[in-house]
User: Which sequence fits this backbone?
């Protein structure tokens, strides 16, 4: 007589879908489930304990203590009956039960006589399988208490299955977040480069126009208004890309020890002209302590604080100084501006928040500088803060850890930009035609002889063909065919047999670009740069070339 075929649950299709969502079938053994079956066999005094999951055609054992096989056909499974209702099923003597008397698992190995199974109940109440104990002897004393204990073991298994699924979902979510972050990183890298390109070309072309219209007052005034709008747009672009890059987590600090005065004095020199145009004094106090931070990112923080102080000060002065405070050096930026209302102190570090600019006049800033300060400081682990007296001014500060040992400050040379570039030969390497054309046109307007090329190979060919030794190389960082400006400059230097001074141009904002340029001894310009910035970079390179 053949064993009876187990019926299927009414919700079989939904039950199987629920089982598959746990993604556990045919997975390797896991210690936590094996510990549970081992403990249950010992607790109940049974030779076999199983974690059984029932799919379309079989019962598969996630853990099988005392049994060598890992699955059986579903038509032979006692568990196929257990999953029909949410209660413990006990078979005291399989030989006396017409459902199982002729079952191959009863008449043959493992010679089941006793079976008790508690259903594995998912959160949505679907029955996925059972937690089972089996013996080759009959047991008529497996009463309610022991059945309750078996159900507890089933609950413990389900807890682990749920935990396992939650971990898998968390890992999948983490992997998806990483993929999304990688996509965002790739987008930012492309956007940082591509969005800056048109601004860069416009900057250079308006610079050429400014020189041509020098004697035409009306047209020059009109051009100045165009340049003002252009500068406003690129200021917003810079801010947005900086914020997005920081939020994407693509900026990795490189920590070193350095003298704080080197950073502060350089920024004061850089911004003194801006302060002079407003008729205010920009002063700095002497600071000879060394700190531990990322100098490039710290410079970004202080540049924003100083420029912000100058922008909000109509008369008086801006003072940059340092104050020792325990194990940190507090760098302070004081201004004599209007001050900050107490109820707005906590809001000024939010993106696009501005005081006294309801009409969103871009001449008063864009409201991104302090947001960049906050996010950069968080990245470095530096505390920032502000104190203000309404009507008298404000003081912003950043606290930077002191260095372990003092380092000697490096001497910084002043670079004079009043240099006549006429007759200077400059090699321009830029793979984008209109960008190369704009750069070449501006350099030619300065009286330079320009050799413009799409690649280092083309540039070398042109240099050799024309027999002209270049004074300076200006190369974009990112070139076609995955080449870089670093490689291009090295190729030119190798071809001419000398270390030709170089200016490296990039649309990326990653501080790593700055470090690569510094290690190579190049001047670095971030797109979009202004014509005066390019002239400054060329002046530095020219001084290096001619001593």
Assistant:
């Amino acid at each position: 007589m053949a064993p009876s075929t187990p019926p299927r649950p009414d919700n079989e299709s939904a039950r199987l879908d629920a089982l598959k969502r746990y993604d556990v079938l045919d997975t390797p053994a896991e210690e936590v489930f094996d510990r549970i079956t081992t403990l249950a066999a010992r607790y109940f005094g049974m030779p076999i304990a199983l974690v059984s999951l029932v799919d379309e055609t079989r019962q598969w054992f996630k853990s099988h203590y005392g049994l060598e096989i890992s699955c059986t056909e579903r038509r032979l499974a006692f568990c196929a009956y257990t999953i029909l209702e949410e209660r413990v099923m006990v078979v005291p003597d399989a030989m006396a039960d017409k459902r199982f008397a002729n079952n191959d698992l009863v008449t043959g190995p493992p010679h089941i006589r006793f079976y008790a199974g508690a259903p594995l109940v998912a959160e949505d109440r679907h029955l996925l399988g059972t937690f089972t104990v089996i013996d080759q002897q009959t047991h008529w004393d497996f009463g309610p208490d022991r059945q309750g204990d078996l159900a507890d073991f089933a609950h413990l298994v389900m807890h682990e299955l749920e935990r396992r699924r939650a971990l898998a979902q968390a890992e999948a979510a983490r992997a998806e977040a990483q993929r999304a972050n990688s996509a965002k990183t790739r987008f930012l890298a492309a956007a940082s480069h591509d969005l800056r390109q048109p601004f860069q070309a416009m900057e250079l072309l308006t610079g050429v126009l400014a020189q041509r219209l020098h004697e035409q007052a009306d047209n020059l005034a009109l051009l100045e208004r165009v340049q003002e709008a252009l500068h406003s747009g690129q200021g917003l672009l810079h801010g947005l890309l900086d914020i997005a890059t920081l939020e994407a987590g693509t900026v990795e600090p490189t920590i070193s020890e350095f003298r704080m005065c080197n950073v502060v004095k350089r920024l004061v020199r850089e911004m003194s002209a801006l302060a002079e145009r407003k008729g205010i004094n920009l002063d700095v106090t002497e600071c000879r302590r060394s700190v531990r931070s990322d100098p490039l990112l710290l410079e970004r923080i202080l540049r924003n604080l100083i420029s912000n102080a100058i922008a909000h000060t109509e008369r008086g002065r801006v003072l940059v100084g340092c104050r020792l405070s325990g194990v940190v050096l507090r760098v302070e930026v004081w201004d004599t501006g209007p001050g900050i209302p107490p109820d707005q102190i906590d809001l000024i570090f939010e993106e696009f928040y501005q005081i006294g600019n309801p009409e969103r006049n871009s001449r008063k800033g864009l409201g991104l500088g302090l947001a960049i300060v906050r996010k950069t400081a968080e990245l470095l682990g530096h505390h920032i803060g502000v104190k203000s007296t309404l009507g008298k001014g404000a003081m912003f500060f950043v606290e930077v850890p002191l260095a372990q040992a003092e380092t000697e400050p490096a001497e910084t040379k002043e670079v004079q930009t009043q240099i006549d570039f006429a007759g200077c030969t400059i090699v321009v390497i830029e793979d984008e035609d209109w960008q190369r054309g704009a750069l070449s046109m501006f350099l030619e307007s300065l009286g330079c002889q320009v050799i413009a090329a799409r690649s280092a190979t083309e540039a070398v060919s042109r240099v050799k063909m024309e027999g002209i030794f270049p004074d300076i190389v200006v190369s974009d960082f990112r070139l076609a065919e995955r080449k870089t400006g670093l490689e291009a400059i090295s190729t030119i230097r190798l071809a001419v047999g000398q270390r030709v001074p170089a200016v490296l141009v990039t649309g990326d904002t990653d501080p790593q670009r700055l470090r690569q340029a510094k290690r190579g001894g190049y001047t670095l310009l971030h797109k979009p740069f202004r014509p005066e910035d390019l002239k400054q970079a060329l002046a530095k390179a020219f001084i290096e070339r001619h001593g």
About this structure: DSSP finds 15 helices and 18 strands in the chain. The radius of gyration is 37 Å. The chain has a mean pLDDT of 82.
